[in-house]
Amino acid sequence: MQKKRLPLGMENFEKLMQEEFYYIDKTDLIIELLRNWAEVTLFTRPRRFGKTLNMSMLKSFFSIHSDQTLFEGLKITEETELCEKYMGKFPVIFISLKGIEALTYEDAFHAAVQTINRAASEVDYLEKSNVLSDADKGLFKELLNSEMSAPAFMGSLLTLSRLLTKHHGMKTVILIDEYDVPLAKAFEHGYYEQMVSLIRGFLGNALKTNDNLQFAVLTGCMRISKESIFTGLNNFKIYSITDKRFHTAFGFTDTEVRELLHYYGQDEYYETVKEWYDGYHFGGIDVYCPWDVINFCSDHLEDAKLSPKNYWANTSGNSVIRHFIESVNEPQMLTRMELERLVNGGMVQKEINQELTYNELYDSIDNLWSTLFMTGYLTQCGEPDGNRYNLVVPNREIRNIITEHILKMFKDKIKNDGETLNAFCEALMNQRVEKVEELFAEYMRRTISIRDTFAQKPTKENFYHGLLLGILGFKEDWSVLSNRESGDGFSDILIQIEDEDIGIVIEVKYAEDGNLEEECQRAMKQIIDTRYVEALKQEGVHTILKYGIACYKKTCKVALETERMIS
To answer: If we measure between CA atoms, which residue out of 192, 126, 189 comes closest to residue 162?
Structure first.
């Protein structure tokens, strides 16, 4: 039997169900939403945790125009009373603010207007309504106007809900996805206050004292201060990553991941998927990032030998983690000890404020910790003590993202250390083993080390490998290659110094038990047995230096063998 397709990047519930993609049933969200009523509900979750697909599902369930057969076999259909009362009963406005991003306020405003234009065009039957007055139809035409004014835009959502309610004789459901994206982009590009004013008016008019509103659901990444956006909203409920209600609605549970892997014959990858993509603690349960799991599964259906990837990093802005790393040892900011503890699988306890505004995110280290927590770079461990949370890195993927930024910061900083860098490279070329050890250890003391039991040995070795590459990158006239195919494998680092007729092969090892000497010898043996020098020999290099470098915490041991070719 042919397997269902994986819903890679699929955010349209109707299309997903009609074309028989694999679907993990999240209709419990509807049941919980209707049983715990709030006129306005906001869900905050990190990027790529299924918010948009869930909102599309809500639209399909409540909309007058939806195909009710889409829900056959799903949990919600077992709730016959709820289905009879709510399914297919309401006009629905579903808009996403994800596309409202631009370098200037003017361009962002134009994108916002287009968002309303599209929402209005989806219900263009209102132009021919025999219920609406000519004045109403004039207001509707204004919603299609790409040149509408800011005041008109602020009232547009309210106007559209009023017209739909009047036409259908039923109150309107409003669904707004990624409500905070315009605010994030505005903060990034310097027009934050203007955008706050626009979004406050847009949402406030539609969600506050709107007699045409059945209920509204919003999603976003951040829980923006109520005072800044949602002033005056009394019937307003927020469910964040710390709330136990709705904790399984976004993200995949362990059971759901096991079932997905089993369906596609990938049971053997369970431990790998868990190590890399699990660990986000929402409310009372650990969940996986859906985007990661689906991408991993898709890639391994095509090539079973592929290594896991950092999928999430490519979809999420990394400005917050950059600010975090760059604040190391700045006054009143992050300490290197705290960063090292986190990367090494440890925990830090911090007070979390979930109601910030975007222009406060980087004001203090406390706000930065809160931002990292809400955006998914850190997660809670155990139960909080009031607003104090035990924070940990959730999984290997996020640990990799953090360490990559650490290495980048290290590389940027060492560029200003030309004299020492040159000394290291000269020692390497001139076979001064003790000096190589001394200078590399000095650089290691300036950054962190990867040594926790959570991280597998290759991860630790890759970190030290990255440090070396950062140092060697100083020599612009050296050809420095990483993981170059040579002989019967891929050498860690291969260097050719053409002017000196010298080639260097470096193999890096991590000494789990602290036995640096033994790991040095293992590295040398690997160089010889795997014939890493072949690529240099083929280039006609006459002097080849073979370095085995073993690292443990912030110490190292260097072994050297020299091979000279006879002309």
So the answer is: 126
Rounded Cα gap, residues 127 and 131, in angstroms: 10
Instruction: Confirm if 45 and 250 have CB atoms less than 8 A apart.
Output: yes
pTM assigned to the model: 0.85
Residue pointed to by tokens 């706050």: 196
What is the model's pLDDT at position 567? 59
- Residue 177: φ, ψ to 5°: -95, 140
Render pLDDT for 240-289 as a digit per residue (tens, 0 to 9).
999 999 999 999 999 999 999 999 999 999 999 999 999 999 988 999 99
Structure tokens at 165: 């309610």
Distance CA 22, CA 2 (A): 12
Distances (CA, A) of 374 to 99, 250, 512: 21, 14, 34
Provide the H-helix boundaries in 432-481: 433-446, 457-472
Strand 543-552 to strand 348-351: parallel, antiparallel, or no bridges (unpaired)?
unpaired
Tokens for 535, please give them. Answer: 């690529």
Per the CB < 8 A criterion, the answer to whether 221 and 45 are in contact is yes
Q: What is the pLDDT of residues 543-564, one digit of tens each?
A: 999 999 999 888 999 999 999 8
Strand ranges across the sheet with 92-96: 92-96, 172-177, 213-220, 40-44, 236-239
Q: How far apart are CA 207 and CA 167, in angstroms?
A: 20
Please give the Cα distance from 241 to 308 (Å, whole number): 26
Contacts of 444 (CB under 8 A, 6+ apart): 464, 467, 551, 554, 555, 556
Here the tokens at position 326 are 């760059």
DSSP letter string, 133-155: -HHHHHHHHHHT-TT--HHHHHT
**280-282 and 348-351 strand pairing:** unpaired
Distance (Å, whole) CA 251 – CA 24: 10
- Name all contacts of 97-102 with Cβ < 8 Å and 24+ positions apart: 97/176, 97/177, 97/178, 97/179, 97/180, 97/181, 97/182, 97/199, 98/52, 98/177, 98/178, 98/181, 100/181, 100/182, 100/185, 101/181, 101/182, 101/185, 102/185, 102/189
Dist. CA 91–CA 168, nearest whole Å: 7
Domains of the chain by start residue, with CATH: 13-239 (3.40.50), 254-314 (no CATH), 319-398 (no CATH), 415-564 (3.40.91)
Q: How far apart are the first and last CA of the chain?
A: 64
Q: How many CB atoms lie within 10 A of CB 154?
A: 21
3-state secondary structure 246-309: CCCCCCECHHHHHHHHHHCCCHHHHHHHHHHHCCEEECCEEEECHHHHHHHHHHHHHCCCCCCC
Amino acid at 102: A
Pair of tokens at residue 362: 């980087």
